[in-house]
Amino acid sequence: MDHFRDGQHVRLRSRVHDTYYLHADDDGESVSISRRRYSLNAAWTVHIYHGDGSHLLLHSAAYGRYLAAASKPASFGHRGFRAEQRDYDQPVLAAIMWQAVEVGSGSGGGVLLRNIGGRYLRAGGRLRRYLRWNTRVSVEYTDNVSATMHWIVEPIRPRARPPLIPGPIRVSSP
């Protein structure tokens, strides 16, 4: 849990797809990986679950929903089950609870995110221009942990002040 602090904002970068980040999709339900690092969809707020302190919740900065391991099968071309965004008040709280398991030594090793039910968060497979469907994120029970399950935690540093708002757009009269 050294990688996560309560209230911290983070991005989760796929270790195998180096420039892709865990991304809350615009439908408010799906989760994928995307290159849009500076998008609000790639920002997640960490909440440490106070029941035992060893579980964390990842809250989407874009849609206010939590990263969850669903019981629905993963989409075509993926193994395991769907990862999705879910509300906190849905009946199965265990679906949104995660444990961070450190991988390797030092800060470059990253983490595995294991759901309380024992399923690991997995980035999509091959990323090619013609296989955009393969960017979905899934969760899987496995004893064979692969590189697609490794995530690098990148803290988002707070700014001293809010970003500047651009001035008005000038429109010429017809």
From TrEMBL:
Domain DUF569: 1-153
Record-linked SUPFAM superfamilies: Actin-crosslinking proteins
Coiled coil segments of this chain: none
Gene3D superfamilies cross-referenced by the UniProt entry: 2.80.10.50
Entry protein name: DUF569 domain-containing protein
Organism: Hordeum vulgare subsp. vulgare
